């Protein structure tokens, strides 16, 4: 089964849940910016949650499917097909996604998963090192992708309980836990809103808002960072590190966005605003367990309806 | 030893050791012990400077406190284990100056030295890999002689080719990928510091000893 790319969209890449086990070599985790959306759309078409799917950015692609298959779209709303449910497409059918009406990034899973080689334990595209995905690059007009041929489809009418999804919004409140240097700053991230700037990308979301002034001017020894780390360069404007973040950073770490709220940040467009709210580490970790349980229930429920 | 959370999916084990060969060996020994005998739910182990960061999938670890105890137990065993293994020594050939090292004369001028002196100092010193990170395969090297410490350039270049050797402040290193960069460029190596197709994609590992050897343009060309 092939997928022809008539129009690639603004920045469309193959992504999965990232590369584990290679951070010691400086290789970022990578994978979907909104990992929750990717997990859900994969489950909706009967794939493993970490199968390779497409990530759209701001403008979606126009695709033709060469055989009957099942797809599912999630994350931002790019039109063309309803989100968060399996959709049957037929051989020769053309699906034209538009600009994002809500959110910033869309995820399109295809039954069987996209068939690209595994590089360093992942199928996702890491553009900076031209690694993984389709030849290490974003899709271009005229590309062709392959997916395993599977005849899976959903038997009954079926809807996702959307309460399991992140509370997507153009002005979300994002929960954080304290970072190693949280105590060295005058002012807190939680006192005002921050705006997302256009300099944001898959490495980091650059924010603009009240200046976070560090009392201690000592240079830090560089330290490991993780997607979600909020670091503050000398200009006092925070950066939320995202999927393609470097593995080590030299700026002070004021906070970390909790894992379950990172998708909310991934879906922000330049100009959107967010607020931060502090929670305990235990609270953040409990939310990870809750989400894992919701995904397991979704998967179990779908098995009964898949043929 | 202290354990500090890094968000809700990683914990930093700080050993409090120095960035000398013994300290780095301890860091590496703990990382190896954690790789060999991974606590349940651990997905990645990263030695860097005087610490080891342990990444975990919280849905699999069965409690944060328990994970920390398991890490501490392994760390104690390492502390008493034999740490006398010799460091690897990696020699990096460098064609200094010329097109690949456009800032060599600037570095020399700022140090009040000749270009030849800068090369002799840079290639005549032994370096230790303190961490790999920032970019894939990028090595943080300790051991640059103070005489050739040089501030970063006021305006970063938009393109620095892979393999370029630079000096940024008290640090020296090799750009593993073509990226923008603000360091002073003094030469270029034909070696690939990072190759996603290799079993071990990064050429260097924390704790390695590194030396640079001057080669000429013909040798550089022959290498490629």
Largest sheet of chain A: 7 strands, mixed, barrel
Instruction: Label the structural class of chain B.
Output: alpha+beta
Give the largest chain-chain interface (CB within 8 Å).
Answer: A-B, 40 and 43 residues
**Alpha carbon gap, first and last residue of chain B:** 45 Å
Number of domains of chain B: 2
Mean pLDDT, all residues of chain B: 92
Helix content estimate of chain B: 25-40%
- Poorly predicted regions of chain B: none
How many distinct folded domains of chain A? 2
Oligomer: heterodimer
Name the structural class of chain A. Answer: alpha+beta
Straight-line distance between termini of chain A? 19 Å
Q: Sheet with the most strands of chain B? A: 7 strands, mixed
The mean pLDDT of chain A is 94
CATH class of the largest domain in chain B: Mainly Beta
Task: Bin the strand percentage of chain B.
Answer: 25-35%
Q: Topology as H/E string of chain B?
A: EEHEEHHEHHEEEEEEEEH
* Rg on CA atoms of chain B, Å: 19 Å
Strand content of chain A: 25-35%
Question: What does it look like?
Answer:
The complex is a heterodimer of chains A (307) and B (224). By secondary structure, chain A is of the alpha+beta class. Chain A folds into two domains: 163 residues, no CATH class; 114 residues, Beta Barrel (Cyclophilin). Helix content of chain A is 12%, strand content 28%. Chain A is built from three helices and 20 strands. Chain A is globular and about 60 Å long. With 224 residues, chain B is α+β, with helices and mostly antiparallel strands. Chain B has two domains: 79 residues, Gyrase A, domain 2, CATH 3.30.1360.40; 135 residues, Cyclophilin. In chain B, 27% of the residues lie in helices and 30% in strands. Chain B contains six helices and 13 strands. The model of chain B has no long low-confidence stretch (mean pLDDT 92). Classes of the chains: A alpha+beta (307), B alpha+beta (224). At the A-B interface, strand 15, strand 18 and helix 3 of A face strand 3 and strand 4 of B.
